Amino acid sequence: MAINCKALGKKFYILIIAFLTGCSGGVSWKEDVQTSNNQIITIERELVFEGGGDEWASNRSGTKPKEYRIRLSLPGSAESQNVWKSTKLSPMTWPEIPLLVDFEDGQPVIFALVAISPGCEVYSKYLFSNGLWHEVPLQEAFQEMPSNLLFGTLKALPERVSIEEKKKRNSGSGYRKSLYRIGPTKKVCGG
Q1: Strands (E), 35-176
Q2: Rounded distance, CA 181 to CA 189, Å?
Q3: Alpha helices in 22-133 (DSSP H)
Q4: Model confidence over 120-138: pLDDT tens digits?
């Protein structure tokens, strides 16, 4: 049996480059979401990865989340405008985590959480108006709301995540309390 060393060398070289630079890519899924008025909508979600990450011992994949994206179907607006993208990064360059999609006065809102220092995180609120997503300043204290988005494990993710599936995936005991709800304060430390 003859081995094509030239072809094998090229493949090996590509594997080494991919390993050294870290893999990138992403995962996407559809997700059923129950809003505060008990309406169930389906959104499209995507998590984009990039090479890099924390120390090798805790991140053997060589990748880390780069950006979360949420696409909503909104009548009367261009599809490209309907995509919310995480914009804030933690000091360790991890993106903010979207936790809640809802509607206020008929306009979509998204709440997200990002670390600002070891053990401390802040919530952010984004409102879709005039065809764009805008950050809306949050008061230091506001009404607490339960999360309605998947933040749990993405392993073996189905093409569409039902509300029941989401509850199972988000129910792990290892998740911070700050992921299960938004508020009642803008800043959360130790939770």
Answers
A1: 40-51, 63-71, 83-85, 97-104, 107-117, 120-129, 132-136, 145-146, 160-161
A2: 14
A3: none
A4: 999 999 999 988 899 999 9
